[in-house]
Amino acid sequence: MESVLNEQESVDQNHWRLQYHVSTPAFWMNDPNGFSFYKGEYHLFYQHHPYSPEWGPMYWGHIKSKDLTYWEHLPIALAPSEEYDRDGCFSGSAIEKDGKLYAMYTGNVWTGDNYDTDLRQVQCLAVSEDGVHFNKVPQNPVIDSAPEGDIHPYHFRDPKVWKKDDYYYCVLGSRTKDHEGQVLLYCSRDLLTWEFMNVMAKSQGNLGFMWECPDLFSLDGQDVLVMSPQGMKSEGDLYHNLHQAGYVKGKLDYKTGLLQHEDFQLLDYGFGFYAPQTAEDEHGRRIMIAWMAMWESSMPEQKHNWAGAMTIPRELSTKQGNIISKPIPELKQLRQHHVQYKNITVNGEQELAGISGDCYELEVKINAKAASQFGIKVRTDNDTHQETLLTYDRLESLFIFNRDKSGEGDGGIRKAPVGLNDNHLHLHLFVDKSSIEVFINEGEKVMTSRIYPADNAKGICFFADQEIELITLNKWNLSKGVSPLIV
């Protein structure tokens, strides 16, 4: 904690520092962990290395919120301290039982120099009476080895726990001995003694060599398995990130432990979205948060002693058989300085008075008319020729996110299949100092990325190759949502 506190003030001065996205007070962050609703508050933990802005021995950082909008940092919740987790408290989840909050996580031990082959992973439990201070249970590890069969003995991690009727269940990320991704299902009466049920689902075809961070929940009467497959090969416009994050829908047979499911679908089509985890809140909503980054991506913020962030919380629902993701309505609390336009014609390029910035929400409904290509440039700066280009291509029915001129960091293009609705396109953008999340057609598709523009790259420009109409355009500046760490 001292290490993080010493760096916090200088990290906050960085012009890429996010204002309303969850990040660490300082140093490294990856996967969301333990996302849960406990005693009237949302708790979010995360993989954290509190000594440098690079990945290292994993701790569990901790932040909480009453409304998923205003966040308060809390002391680090878990640290490597025992023989079974001495090289890291890896990812996991949290659940309330008897008024206490239980965190289930993977204890990691390196058994040699090769982190891919020389490791031992076990599943562990820690308990808290106040949601802040955790004690590891004396029975650890509660699952001390992978099951027999075609299951890799070492890659065995990321427990996600839920309760159904009288039993607790957990899914674990796994792979076969021949390196095909799969998910294991366990059950327990008390969270302490676990019984292996079955390989719940496994890769068929191009679904990667390892399924990380599984999550199983019901949504609108169907079971949904969310996971992050590593090693999928690209197919056309899809799967161009190093690893993917998506879901399959189906029905879990709780007697056999088998999930009959449909095909894999992505949850986000952008550059930076991994290890999503969901929680159900008191209103019965299914809320999802993911790491807004990707393994192997360059992270220019590391030179300012921080790395990584979370997406905004997204509410999941289904529409015509697919999951849609929408920004939670609570974020409206951050809105300031509303600017609105109606029925604006654009042909060529057009900027509008009052429409610029580097930390805002922008919602626009566009009548495409006869245009074949149109869209928005954000974070533009004429002096440095920086821009992040968001284009709709009617002929290809694609929405294209181009960050080749977005500033420092990686460039690249990502594409999402998008149709027009009655010749209309609806875009809902959340731009923060070094990130963009684009919700397309009411959350039917989402594209997320970190970008690293110059401090003065604040322009917004609409463009079209033939006349389009901005039917409604609303823009709000967004205020800061994350408080500094105070101990």
Could you please describe the fold and organization of this structure?
This protein is mainly β. It has 2 domains: 2-327, 5 Propeller (Tachylectin-2, Chain A); 336-478, Exo-inulinase, domain 1 (Jelly Rolls), CATH 2.60.120.560. Helices cover 2% and strands 52% of the residues. It contains 1 helix and 32 strands. Strands 23, 24, 25, 26, 27, 28, 29, 30, 31 and 32 form a 10-stranded antiparallel β-sheet that branches. Strand 9 and strand 10 form a beta hairpin. The N and C termini lie close together (9 Å). The mean pLDDT is 97.
Q: What is the assigned CATH homologous superfamily of the largest domain? A: Glycosyl hydrolase domain, family 43
Apparent shape: globular
Q: Remind me, CATH topology of the largest domain?
A: Tachylectin-2, Chain A
Distance between the termini: 9 Å
The amount of beta strand, in percent, is: over 45%
Number of helices: 1
Question: What can be said about the biggest beta sheet?
Answer: 10 strands, antiparallel
- Average pLDDT works out at 97
Brief description of this entry?
This protein is mostly beta strands and 487 residues long.
Detail the topology: elements first, then pairings.
Layout: H1 2-12, E1 27-38, E2 41-49, E3 59-65, E4 71-78, E5 89-97, E6 100-110, E7 119-128, E8 135-136, E9 156-164, E10 167-175, E11 181-188, E12 194-202, E13 210-219, E14 222-230, E15 246-253, E16 258-261, E17 265-266, E18 274-280, E19 286-291, E20 306-307, E21 314-319, E22 322-327, E23 335-350, E24 360-367, E25 373-381, E26 386-393, E27 398-402, E28 413-417, E29 424-432, E30 435-440, E31 445-450, E32 459-478
Parallel strand pairs: 1-20
Antiparallel strand pairs: 1-2, 2-3, 3-4, 5-6, 6-7, 7-8, 9-10, 10-11, 11-12, 13-14, 14-15, 15-16, 15-17, 18-19, 19-21, 21-22, 23-32, 24-29, 24-32, 25-26, 25-32, 26-27, 27-28, 29-30, 30-31
